[in-house]
Amino acid sequence: MNFVRWRAVARKEFLHIRRDPRSLALSLAVPLLLLLMFGWALTLDVDRIPTYVYDWDGTPESRALIDQFRGSRYFDIQRYVHSYAPVDKQIDLSHILMSIVVPRYYARDILEGRQADVQVILDGSDSNTASIALGYAQSVFAAYGAELRSEAQIRRGAGKLKAAVDPRIRVMYNSDLESKNFIVPGLIAVTMMIIAALLTSLTVAREWETGTMEPLLSTPLRPAEIILGKLSAFFTLGFTDMLICVLVGVFIFHVPFRGSVWFLMFSSFLFLFGALCWGILVSTLARSQLVAYQVGILTSFLPAFLLSGFIYSIENMPAVIQAITYVVPARYFVSILKGVFLKGAGIRILAVETTFLFVYASLAFLLAVKKMRQKVA
Amino acid sequence: MTNLSFRRIREIIRKEFRQTFREPRMRVLLFIPPIMQLIIFGYAANLDVDNSLIAWCDLDHTTQSRDLLADFVGSKRFEVTHAPSTEAQVQNLLDAGSVQGAVVILPGFGRDIEHGRTTAVQVLVDGSNSNTASIIANYASSIVVSYGSKVLNQQNRDKLVGRAVNAPVHAGIPTLGMRSRIWFNPDLRSRNYFVPGVVANIIALVTLMLTAMAIVREKEIGTMEQLMVTPIRPVELMLGKTLPFAMVGIVQVSLVTTVALLLFKVPFHGSFLMLFGCAVLFLMTTLGAGLFISTISHTQQQAMLTTFLFFQPFFLLSGFAFPIRNMPLIAQYLTWLDPVRYFMEIVRGIFLKGVGVEILWPQMVALAVFGVSILSLSASRFRKKLD
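ok -> structure tokens follow
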């Protein structure tokens, strides 16, 4: 291991990046773009569900029921219709998602103390929105039903009914339930993987393809020196991306940051180092840039995006896929990121995850060196 | 365009196919990654909350608190994995992310219920994933509310029975019911929504990337010069370079759709002809965009990064995972400029709703407009670059 030789390779890589300002700009623009999208435009939070009302009954009682929905910010009543036909048509066109149909004898049933069933039609294709909408509708009906019963009870002189059990829901760590608060921290892992998959995995493959790898191998450079030299350039990029994510996320999009900056730096260092070594390994094996890209995307970016708990929670996946997530390093890094940002957790709580990252980083480095040595020899 | 030679175009297509399929690794890589992406996406992209892990902290230990526990477990929505005995332990479990929520029953719960007083159950939900959290909170609160009304009914019955022994139970108290009818996806499986979307995305990304890379590769390794000194005209070169990937794209549509139907049992209510017709419309856009990227890139790495940078916003704004309706108004207008959005709507409409041209014609017109304009824009740029 010779520091001078390492530095020489690093300088060469920095020159490569500097000579190609577009790749440099793009590798900084991708994270910014993702941040902007997730911080500003994209949310999984459901409100203002476009709704039609078909009030077959048309009585003060049915209007009182509909007023419950008008008052809620979750529903946006767009029109009152007088048959099923427009409801069918608009749901087919995806212009509305929901329709409330009040039956013919609603008021009579309520006043005479019978069961009155109100129909709710939902477009289930987007199951997430639909099940949240269904939950909101159910709670409106439950609350209003209780009110109706209590009124009837008072009318009959039986005294007011009191709720027996009151659920007190407290949402921890992200009390406004904003999806950006958990997505933006996870983005750090995703952008690091983009650097690893899109830049690092191409670096050795390009040398093979353009024929500069042979001259590089005939120099006295040792495998570890080539790898560390190539890494230093990409490491700088990856770390810059991380800082951008943290600063923009916290100061522009107001994502809470409750943990320790040092712990964040330390775990990012481990993860980034491992991811980049993996990228080099892929690159050494692939030999062509297109192959390297495909393998890189498949083994680093996609798992980080899909199997890490970044957006889709691991608990809901089938058991086999859950088992696979245990070998996805991004999974551990994403839990660290969420822990540091939202929960203020430190190394004591996240010790297991940190250990895994350490193992990953060392393994990826050793494998990369081994493969590179085989190529050199 | 007058003396466009089909023989020359055919030769380039042949060369392109031979080059692509010569390398065994490439043969595999053309078809395996899309399918793997479909499988990973299909299984992982899932927003359903079926089985949440919760901690149950019972500080009351009465019949009532055990009844409530039975209701939670019986709902099949929750799995109680920890039974901490102090609130500090609850906090630790949530901090470590071992459970997604916790129910805390304070001492006096059972006594309050017996005396007909209102009592409370504390439900703590880990909000880090806001989507999961709001669904869990909804489930938990509906279980607690229904337990409450069960208790209330019981007390009410006792009271009524106490007052007039022969009075019918529930006499004259109205109940309000909700009957929900869920169309297109009655079990609310998010896989039915995501898998068709994945089909759309994979087609887009793969054809875009392959076209861009195939042309830039010739530039990077220097064979473009050689092609230019042959009698091949730019238009012929362009057609010869894009048509193979159009064919690969169509094969991938059928492959990915077949896997989606067989493996994920996603419903398919529409017509295959319609799906292929729209895929062709959409491929015009992706191939045109791939061609465009190739004209502005010099190395494969640049082409790749540019494709990635282009594709990410189109993918994210397409409504694939994040509903367009929830975006800020400006972003909603931006989605009108996103061809993937239209294809996404078409694919989902065909798969889930079985709608045809009568409903989807605006989207098809939009795709055609995008396709023709992108294709002609990049064709003219491509020609200028070569001349």
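The CA atoms of residues 81 and 271 of chain A lie 57 Å apart.
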